[in-house]
Amino acid sequence: MQPIEDRLAIEDLLHAYARAMDFGEIDAVAALFASDGRVRDIQGRLWDSAAGGPRAFAARWLDPPGAKRGQHWIQRMRTDVISADCCRLLSYWSSTRWTAASPAPQMTALGLYTDTVVRQDGRWLIQEKIIDRWETAG
Question: Among residues 87, 68, 85, 84, which one has the least CA distance to residue 76?
Answer without folding.
Answer: 87
